[in-house]
Write a structure and sequence with these properties.
CATH architecture of the largest domain in chain A: 3-Layer(aba) Sandwich
Radius of gyration of chain A: 23 Å
Low-confidence stretches of chain A: 1-6
Helix content of chain A: 25-40%
Mean pLDDT of chain B: 94
Strand content of chain B: 5-15%
Order of helices and strands of chain B: EEEHHEHEHEHEHHEHEHEHEH
Radius of gyration of chain B: 20 Å
Number of domains of chain B: 1
CATH class of the largest domain in chain A: Alpha Beta
CATH class of chain B: Alpha Beta
Helix content of chain B: 40-55%
Number of strands of chain B: 11
Distance between the termini of chain B: 66 Å
Strand content of chain A: 15-25%
Mean pLDDT of chain A: 96
Shape of chain A: globular
Structural class of chain B: alpha/beta
Number of domains of chain A: 2
Structural class of chain A: alpha/beta
Number of helices of chain B: 11
CATH topology of the largest domain in chain A: Aldehyde Dehydrogenase, Chain A, domain 1
Oligomer: heterodimer
Number of strands of chain A: 20
Low-confidence stretches of chain B: none
Number of helices of chain A: 16
Distance between the termini of chain A: 81 Å
């Protein structure tokens, strides 16, 4: 067979036509996008008091999608008041099983309309439809289901303790997983009996607003879930509002620090889930092809817009050339392009500002003398795209090895021993995630016990489950989301009988 | 003078084995399965789909391996192999027909020197449990009767009991026995127990001179699966990088639908490259698959599905 070429250009043409994957684009028609969206406050949709709006754009083209109300301090005031009223009049004293009913209903509605949410998420944020369809939306529904189940079992969440709700919770979510982060935040808050004022990220507000509409459809009492859209000033007004009992923030370390300062004198409860510079440690006995998949998934999933991304590859010297060779060959297969195409692996960078930031990091690395490897497939001409990038040949003290790039850029370093791997992995101000690849079980335990990170994955990466607590150490923040630990962040715990 | 070498015992320093037994690159099952699942779920539409369907037809080894096989059955299958869709004479024939040794002459008579090759299973298929000289005799006889390709099974008993040299030497003997015909070596992956064992068997079969490595006999409940195909494709790629030798891949058993076939083509294209998307290097061993491919091609051509009864059977 192999030495008797049967033919022929015919077969070769067929092979080329096949492997090119004709566009397979998910239809936009499933979702109706209105030209204008208001705030959701006290069970109603309305414009900002001063009429201010901002535009949200489609990063895959740069085209305008819709105008969204920009909430002012006054609008935040209104929403907090509505949340307070709902807390005191209905939600706080409602039996847990009744709160559960609303949350289950919301989870089911989200599943029913999952395609609509996936398409909207991809249009507004630029992530590949394969990810929004297979990861973001199903996980968001899973978080709602999981926490709905807790709502009538809170007295068993912490042995020996009984939990009461905190009151009104201000939640500020990022643009990288717009819907999923909203679900992570509102599900435990609402299950525990708190009411919510949510401020979604300004570049990706649409799925949060659609979820707010869905909550109305699910019959949530007015004011239980309020969505105030806007940018930094709106968020600052919410975080600093005296009527807010707890602030939960996911976003940059810089903004997290400002929020911590703003809440310092008030006794407001606070959880922060901030940046990261996760180390992906690959030992010489690792399953190489699968480690390559893990590294690829760790940094190119969601264009690298992932706070727990494995953005630093630490590879043992003996296999460095072999692994990097495989890695370079593998990323050449990544299809960068139209996020709505079902075969797209890497979508659009979320915003022009973020694209400029990523470019800046890579240019600086080039000036620092780094070897930069990028994929050769052409990028779309319009929209915000950045090729998957591997940066080699740096010592570790350069910005690209230390700072969070939040893009599809992997910085590579090598190590010789387990101790050196741990030392290098921990040489960062962050502490959110890390990964270990080795076939040796004892080494997994030895290394992972010493890595200073909130989450350590072994022979896998970017695994999420609503029952598993997620959160950081050091400048990656504090507090956990998910699991019983996440639940406690939304409860005032008292010893039983007090 | 110090000598360092590598043989079936592993790394050998001055005649002392340092690293036993022979090991292959580790394979992580969960990550392999996940990668394979993602590869076979590529969304293949429009022109790519039509190309993939036609390509799949060209890569089929149309197979019958039953106790009830007769010359008549084989003649009917050969007719279908030459003209997979009676309504579309432009559709290319399949790659080969695959039969038991006793029917090779009949198949060769029906197909002549045309485009469709004759493949024969041989070597105490499917168990391989007979004496080596009998297995080799069976292989030689199949080639004498006109088989272009011979599908043999590896000695799983020897592999699972650690006698790797036996596995290797038997395949090497079969390589010699087939002469100018092509040797397709069946690993019977469903009996090997782990992906590492599949990778090890792949490497041994390739090192012993197989032209093609093949997943299964089709006689077990578990035959070709996406992770198995991926594991073997990665072994072929790595072997080729080390030795410069091109080895083909044949997936047999369990591939019944056009959708599965397109998924496997994507897996092969993204692991080995489009150079492998040719019957010279890639085959589906199947019987029911062909009619689904024809059915889907007719739908692409006419916009309507034919009644299943309208398609030929053999």
């Amino acid at each position: 067979m192999t030495t008797t070429p049967q033919n022929d250009t015919g077969t070769r043409d067929l092979a080329a036509a096949f492997a090119d994957y004709a566009p397979s684009v998910e239809g936009r028609d499933i979702v109706t996008i209105r030209p204008r969206y208001g705030l959701l406050s006290g069970g109603e949709e309305r414009d900002a008091r001063d009429g201010a709006v901002f535009a949200t754009i489609d990063p895959s083209t740069g085209d305008h999608i819709a105008e969204v109300a920009e909430g002012s301090a006054q609008d935040v005031d209104d929403a907090v008041a509505a949340a307070r009223a709902a807390y005191e009049s209905t939600w706080r004293d409602m039996p847990g099983r009744t709160r559960a009913k609303y949350l289950f209903r919301l989870a089911r509605l989200l599943q029913d309309r999952s395609r609509e949410f996936a398409v909207l998420e991809t249009i507004d944020g630029g992530k590949p439809i394969r990810e929004s369809r297979d990861v973001d939306v199903p996980l968001a529904a899973a978080h709602l289901f999981h926490h709905a189940g807790w709502a009538d079992k809170l007295e068993y969440a912490v042995p020996g303790m009984t939990g009461r709700p905190l009151g009104v919770v201000g939640q500020i979510t990022p643009w990288n997983f717009p819907l999923l982060m909203v679900a992570w935040k509102i599900a435990p808050a609402l299950a525990c009996g708190n009411t919510v004022v949510l401020k979604p990220a300004e570049t990706t507000p649409l799925t949060a607003l659609l979820l707010g509409e869905l909550a109305r459809e699910a019959g949530f009492p007015p004011g239980v879930l309020n969505v105030v859209t806007g940018a930094g000033a709106t968020g600052a007004a919410l975080a600093g509002h005296p009527g807010v009992d707890k602030v939960a923030f996911t976003g940059s370390t810089e903004v997290g620090k400002a929020i911590r300062r703003a809440t310092a004198e008030r006794g407001t409860r606070l959880t922060l889930e901030l940046g990261g510079k996760g180390a992906h440690v690959v030992f010489d006995d690792a399953a190489l092809d699968q480690a390559v998949e893990g590294v690829v998934d760790g940094i190119f999933f969601n264009q690298g817009h992932v706070c727990c991304a494995g953005s630093r590859l630490l590879v043992q010297e003996g296999i460095a050339d072999e692994l990097l060779g495989r890695l370079r060959r593998r990323i050449e297969l990544l299809r960068v392009g139209d996020p709505l195409d079902k075969n797209t692996d890497v979508g659009a960078i979320n915003s022009h500002a973020q694209l400029e930031r990523i470019r800046g990091f890579v240019e600086d690395a080039r000036e620092d003398g780094a070897r930069i490897h990028q994929t050769s497939r052409p990028l779309p001409e319009r929209g915000f795209y950045f090729p998957p990038t591997i940066v080699e040949g740096l010592g570790g003290s350069e910005a690209i090895c230390r700072e969070e790039v939040f893009g599809p850029v992997l910085a590579v370093q090598t190590f010789r021993t387990e101790a050196e791997a741990v030392a290098r992995a921990n040489a960062t101000r962050y502490g959110l995630s890390a990964g270990v690849w080795t076939e040796k079980g004892s080494r997994i335990l030895w290394v992972s016990q010493r890595l200073r990170a909130g989450v350590v994955w072994a022979n896998s990466f970017n695994r999420f489950d609503p029952a598993s607590p997620f959160g950081g150490m050091r400048e990656s923040g504090f507090g956990r989301e998910g699991g019983r630990q996440g639940l406690q962040e939304y409860l005032r715990l008292e010893p039983v009988g007090a | 003078m110090t000598t360092v070498s590598r043989d079936l015992r592993g790394l050998v320093l001055d005649g002392v084995a340092l690293d036993t037994p022979l090991r292959v690159q580790a394979v992580d099952a969960l990550a392999l399965e996940e990668r394979a699942a993602r590869l076979v779920s590529r969304s293949v539409k429009k022109a790519s789909k039509v190309a993939g369907l036609e390509l799949s037809v060209r890569c089929v080894d149309l197979t019958t391996l039953e106790g009830m096989d007769t010359p008549g059955k084989v003649r009917a299958m050969c007719a279908r192999a030459l003209r997979p869709d009676p309504e579309d004479p432009s559709l290319h024939p399949v790659a080969a027909v695959c039969v038991y040794g006793s029917l090779v002459a009949e198949a060769r008579h029906a197909l002549g020197d045309g485009p469709v090759k004759v493949a024969s299973v041989a070597g105490a298929f499917p168990s391989g449990q007979s004496h080596l000289h009998e297995r080799l005799e069976e292989i030689r006889r199949a080639v004498e009767d006109g088989a272009h390709e011979v599908d043999i099974v590896i000695n799983r008993g020897a592999l699972l009991s650690g006698r790797l040299d036996v596995v290797h030497d038997e395949i090497a003997a079969a390589t010699a026995a087939v002469g100018d015909a092509h040797l397709k070596t069946i690993l019977e992956t469903g009996e090997l127990g782990s992906y590492e064992m599949i990778r090890l068997a792949s490497m041994i079969a390739m090192a012993a001179g197989s032209d093609v490595i093949k997943t299964s006999t089709g006689k077990l409940p578990v035959s070709a699966t996406p992770p198995t195909a991926l594991c073997m494709a990665e072994a072929i790629r790595d072997f080729g990088e080390q030795t410069g030798r091109v080895v083909g891949l044949k997936l047999a058993g369990g591939v019944r639908t056009a959708k599965q076939a397109l998924g496997y083509l994507a897996l092969v294209a993204e692991t080995l490259g489009t150079d492998w998307l040719t019957p010279d290097r890639f085959r589906f061993g199947a019987s029911t698959l062909l009619n689904d491919l024809v059915l889907q091609l007719r739908f692409q051509r006419t916009g309507r599905y034919p009644r299943p009864g309208d398609l030929p059977v053999d």
